[in-house]
Amino acid sequence: MISKKTLKLSVKSLKDFAKKQLPDEHLIELDARDECPIEIVRHMCSPDHLGIQLLFVPEEYGGFGGGAFDVYCVCEEMARIDLGVATSVLATFLGSDPITVGATPEQKKLWLSRIAEEGILFAYGATEPDAGSDLGALQSTAERVIKDDRVVGYKINGSKQWISNGGVADAYTVLASTPAGPSWFIVEKGAPGFSHDEPEDKHGIRTSNTAALSFSDVYVDADRLIGGVEGQGLIQAQAVFGYTRLMVAAFGLGAGWAALDRAIPYSTKRIQAGSPLSEKQGYTHKLIVPHVARLEAGRACIEETAERIDAGEGSLNTEGAIAKYMATEAGNFAADASIQALGGYGYTHEYMVEKIRRDVRITTIYEGTSEIMEMTISRDRWQLHLKTRGDHYHEQARQLEALDARHKDVGAGVAALALHALAEAMERARAARLTRHQHILLRLGEWTAYAESAGCLARRAAMAAEGRLNEKANMRFDPPALAALSRIFAREAALKVATEGLRWVIGAGGVSETGITSLEAALGLPAIHRAQTGLMADMDQVCDVLYSRVEKHVAVPA
Ligand SMILES: Cc1cc2nc3c(=O)[nH]c(=O)nc-3n(C[C@H](O)[C@H](O)[C@H](O)COP(=O)(O)OP(=O)(O)OC[C@H]3O[C@@H](n4cnc5c(N)ncnc54)[C@H](O)[C@@H]3O)c2cc1C
Q1: pLDDT for 241
Q2: pLDDT per residue as tens digits for the range 152-189
Q3: In this structure, which residue's CA is closest to atom 26 in ligand 1?
Q4: Catalytic residue among 200, 230, 319, 367, which?
Q5: Of the candidates 473, 458, 328, which has an alpha carbon nearest to the alpha carbon of residue 406?
Q6: Residue 386 pairs with which residues in a beta bridge?
Q7: Is 452 a catalytic residue?
Q8: From the alpha carbon of 125, which atom of ligand 1 is closest?
């Protein structure tokens, strides 16, 4: 982990670099030309220029050894600048992840040092034309080359699809099936038999190079098999999901905020019907405030998960999936609302929000789609529900009730209602075997993400009130504003879990006509309805903070 001072300096250098090299006008041109600014990406990853890659490389290989929290902070900042360029930088870290978790000491020394010292760019080649979400359907092969009874190398055949940096990387980590199962290999550019296609003509992140790769009898020495043992590929990929999904979560968060930070100042200047849009509640309470609450719920998940990863709790794949799901979905909605907030101007290129909207769309697709996140979350938490005989989320709720007793105003009590409702919805699903419907399984994943995020945000607001937030934490909102955001989000989460839980348990035939009233009560719907009291006042309060209307809640720039 790096010090707060080093992190601050790195973020400042990144901002200064972007101001000079990637002003809006240039980004708009690059987007229109569908061009990856490869020299700028190389400068970002070069030790002689910005050297942003040093943050991610462990100290023993010449980097700064940034932890998950540091990586989140930098990824959010990169996404605020440009998600395409951020993706190009991310690709090197995704590409080097199998090395970081699974390589031999010699391989780590060679490749991680080259990233740190030479700034070489990597690409991460997992996806194939017929193997996307289901990587088990992988068709690329790595055939052993044997000499004197020894495996001296491998011949790789197959193709990869949608690979970021595919046409510009210096080295590629490539997943291919060996006789003992999927394994990662390192292939260098220019290897005989290796080629890449022209860049894809994409909807968004047009400043990122995405290309298909092709391997025809590409020979690599045995020391290019990451870890030196065949069949470890999917385990190595799994081992970093919590971490890599946090990076994409931070992308969703950064892009969502980048859009809102254009909509908010715009609305103070745009006069309609005699006053600025920012003074119209029907505008702010629809297009701005709810998105701020959802983004900050995503942030709470990211920060809590990053802290836990840095504290050595493992890769936290489910928590990473929740953070990615919440922050990227929120980023998408926020960017979409920002176009609406700018009206006709928002629909043009010049104002950037339509570019951000196209760019952020990728975050719910790559590193695992939102539907795969729902499935990942649901499967894991369903097991916890079964193992604890239905008590897991009631217990989580009780912990939040205890927090509510100490901090009345951070929304913990309402977040507890969301968790109790989730426990009840899961229990009804178990009793009526509703998870035989895949849709119910995935909806449970969605409700879990909302309910757990409400808990995260309440805890974050309480920690802020106690002055115990991580020293590197985002301080955009002061404790009273965070508490108001938490109350807003907790109400939304509780209402969502209970009303949608009711809808789908009934819809899937999980309750008889006569049992509906008792199900409504079990889900806590009356209490959740009563908990909506004060919602308008909280939204007014957040609005005042966003528009710096009250001194004691002045928003501090991130
Ligand atoms: C711009 C871009 C950059 C990328 N960069 C990289 C990269 O650098 N390296 C890399 O390896 N890959 C990369 N990818 C690939 C990306 O990770 C995949 O596109 C993603 O995992 C989804 O796979 P797919 O496109 O094959 O979609 P599919 O898996 O076919 O999914 C299509 C739809 O079906 C849904 N779906 C899939 N399975 C299920 C299921 N079991 N149940 C219910 N719904 C399901 C999905 O959620 C999605 O909505 C990139 C993709 C893009 C577009």
Answers
A1: 81
A2: 999 999 999 999 999 999 999 999 999 999 999 999 99
A3: 132
A4: 367
A5: 458
A6: none
A7: no
A8: 11
